[in-house]
Amino acid sequence: MTREFSGTYRGTTTDERREQRRRRLLDAALDIVGSQGLSALTVRGVCEQARVGPRFFYESFPDLDALAGALLTEVQQEALDQARLTMNATPGSAEDKIRAGVAALIISVTDDPRRANIAFAQAYGSEALMRRRFAGMREVAALIIEQTRLLLDIPEGEDTAITALAQLITGGAAELTLVWLDGGLKVERPVLIELIADYVVAMVDRLPGMATKLSD
Q1: In this structure, which topology does domain 14-61 adopt according to CATH?
Q2: Dihedral angle of Cα 191, 192, 194, 198, to the nearest 10 degrees
């Protein structure tokens, strides 16, 4: 069996070369899935575009589902990180921070149509990606819970209300963005962002009422 020599070669270590190949595979998958759809993703095609031998594909990923899942995770995580950083850096009221975070998240995902396609549309064609999409939505919900507690003076014991609120916000925002991407909502992106931000702020304002209902 052929294997890669260990040590440094042309100034890079084995681990660095492995990571470079993985990066090229992810970049190639982004282009293929984001432009042509999940059905166009093949080991041969992604390896040719990444200029990586097939044996090195399996060094990085056990199968195509794992590659697509890693790609979706990366897109989701970068958007979450950007939203968190933006909210933390934004001065002003809780509403100001929420609006800034919504804008950062939506812009991060939709600036590149390929990333938006992967984040919102292509998951429906794969059970593995759908699981990853749901996991990502739970992570967004966790961010909302985290930031809600940081920004608002919420009494202890309202975890159920906050969790319900976060899931409603996450699901609603994701589906509205998907409709927008599909052409069903014919507005410019700033209007989409404002609509989602208005929705998030309105839902947060309803938190006390939700807590009361859930505690009855």
Answers
A1: Arc Repressor Mutant, subunit A (1.10.10)
A2: 140
